[in-house]
Fold this protein.
Amino acid sequence: MSSPAVRVRFAPSPTGFLHVGGLRTALYNYLFARRTNGVFILRIEDTDRARYVEGAVENLVSTLRWAGIDFDEGPGKDGGVGPYVQSERLEIYRKHAESLFASGNAYYCFCTSVRLEEMRKQQDALRLPPKYDRHCAKLTPDEVSALIAAGTPRVLRLRVPVGATIRFHDVIRDDVEFSSDAIDDQVLIKSDGYPTYHLANVVDDHLMKVTHVIRGEEWLSSTPKHILLYGYFGWEKPVFAHLPLLLNPDRSKLSKRQGDVAVEEYRAKQYLREALVNFVALLGWNPGDDREIFQMEELIKEFSLERVGKSGAIFNQTKLGWLNEQHLRSKSDRELLGMLQCELAGSPFKEKTFPDAYLLSVITVMRERVSFMRDFVEKGAYFFEAPASYEEEMVRKRWTSESAGQMEHLVREFSLLTVPGPAEFESALHRSAQSLGVGNGVLIHGVRLAVSGVSGGPGIYEILAILGKDETITRIRAAISRLAPTAR
RNA sequence: GGCGCUAUCGUCUAACGGUUAGGACGGAGCCCUCUCAAGGCUCAAAUACGGGUUCGAUUCCCGUUAGCGCUACCA
């Protein structure tokens, strides 16, 4: 007997942007689906009209696509069990809610929010757990019909059994059990006719033939309600896997105001999709060995729910930065070329054009020194324009009363070069140093200051060769006339 | 408050009863070197606490503590 094909879903609410925690949940579902040749569904849970944000669905979809997570079924991609947006499935929920009422497993509640609030206040005063007091569960069928006929606002509540133990198995947490007495008679249908998460989620997961529910740990406590619903409907339960939470540095649930949580923020800061995906994949999962750098394909090959941990993980941006550098460096020069051209198009140098060969040589010398694409333009600005100013500290340290004369000598030596490659610049500089009777370092630092204006960067001979003989000489002359000697 | 989940270096984690408790990020130092990086090497750094079970516990059980989650007509 073969088990049915795996079907999993990511079911976000369109309340804004994709959260990095949501990204990880989506990723684990996606990896599990791909790993098992299953189906990955995107379902939009927009049953809370008050929290709906315009454009959030489009944003979710495009952010997921950016991350390399594509869904097999979802909005605009029907697999036969749609629609995949809950607000378009109201009739389905209404019918299922009615069957629950008919079977006696749910009841209508006409309590006003005022009464509910009053009730909670009393419970709080008596230090009792806040729970619906089942006032309306005691209504007779006639009373219920009369209230409905009168058009009294109502909700449908789940009838939770008394004194029962609800057990279920979780792939990550093993066997979990709750006493039904701790569970509230959950509202299933709100007074506006919309279902709550609990009803919609269970109905959809069943109708969409979802086999594995992989979601955040914040849902563990409400799973008993879902178990009850599966039982009342007579449906087979899916496999549950509750993922550990992503945490702020202070160990609270990852939230705004303690760093960035929106995937687009990281995207805007130029973190590579590969790095972000790699990073969140490792927050709660590991391959069982020491490997840490993964491409999506490798994650698909290695992922398993069995290797997902149980404890929350702090979202550590420092390590994300490292991972980003690793992924950036693993890109080919050709790939980086396209990215650099993009970067230049949005830079102060967008009016200038540079030959591919020139950009490629800049990439060769800069790739080990950058963390983000913008660093090519920021840290390596001197490859794209002559320095407008010179680093003060560097001038103080490296530009002495002798510097101008030394640089003049260097210019004469450089102007003789017929093949201005790195090796030629090097030996020319050596000759200059020798005849001036100074160490190579003196000239090296001086010329670095003159051509780049900054203290750090690739090897000086590489820089000179890339800039070319003419540009090098022009820049040195400019520095001679612009820099006043400083006393050492 | 109630219920639930969790607990190994600062952080992410490995160990599925027997290891000098391993790796990675970050930190410190050294090497390389014209600078800045990258890279290599080295060092510091952990089993929350208390009881069991066992010849032997990071590992299994119980308790304590702590953290987190849930406790809505939010998801």
Residues 386-488 of chain A form a domain with the Arc Repressor Mutant, subunit A fold (CATH 1.10.10.350). The first strand of chain A starts at residue 7 and ends at 10.
